[in-house]
Amino acid sequence: MKNIFLAMALFLAAVPTQTLTQEERDRAVAELEGSKKAFLDATKGLSPAQSNFKAAPDRWSVAECSEHIALAEGFIFGLVSEKIMKTPANPEKREAAKGKDELIVKILQDRSHKATAPEPLDPAKQAAMTLPESIKLFQDKRAGTIEYVKTTQEDLRDHLFDHPVPAIGTLDGYQWILLISGHTRRHTAQILEVKADANFPPM
Has residue 61 been placed in a domain? Predict the structure, then answer.
């Protein structure tokens, strides 16, 4: 009997714990796919003149917005996978992140609140990419993000990290993944603003 209990314990220990429900995975993948489509639709078929047009000298072009989106994809995912998930779990902070799954994407899309891009994500301080180059980099990085959400067995909900913007505050690992998508939507809206400018080239 003792051996049977030991065998059962070993079996249960070998079974990976599913830390995200299927519903959570599906919701995050749908959001990531949705923001990817919005970005690709906004940048589709643009000429070099259109992609490099600036509404003002201190404004970003479509190409620069796209480069920022592509760089941020890998940067934020790296923060999740290399920092947040490699620090000790802190489930005692869960209450601070409660209810933010839906909120985080909405907050990021509010462009009435401006932010300064950190140097690694500022296209003016990085090697310039063409629009096709940034789109390809984005697609490659987004594919990795989606695959991670589909397959990870890490306890994203028990690893929490504070966003530097106080209005956002504490987020768990899952919410940081949703933030990636919200960031894409935020700067896709910026691309649409550039395209709506009265002086945007017809071709």
Answer: yes
In a domain, 5, yes or no: no
Give the integer Cα–Cα distance in Å for 83 and 85.
6
The CATH code of the domain that includes 83 is 1.20.120.450
What does pTM read for this prediction?
A: 0.87
In whole angstroms, what separates CA 201 from the centre of its chain? 30
Q: Are 109 and 39 in contact (CB under 8 A)?
A: no
pLDDT digits (tens, 9 = 90+) for 65-81: 999 999 999 999 999 99
The total number of structural domains in the chain stands at 1
Provide the residue range defining the domain that includes 79: 22-195
How does pLDDT run across 68-122, given as a tens digit for each residue? 999 999 999 999 999 999 999 999 999 999 999 999 999 998 887 777 888 888 8
- What CA–CA distance (Å, rounded) separates 143 from 133? 16
Q: Is residue 67 domain-resident?
A: yes
Residues 70 and 141: beta-carbon distance below 8 Å: yes
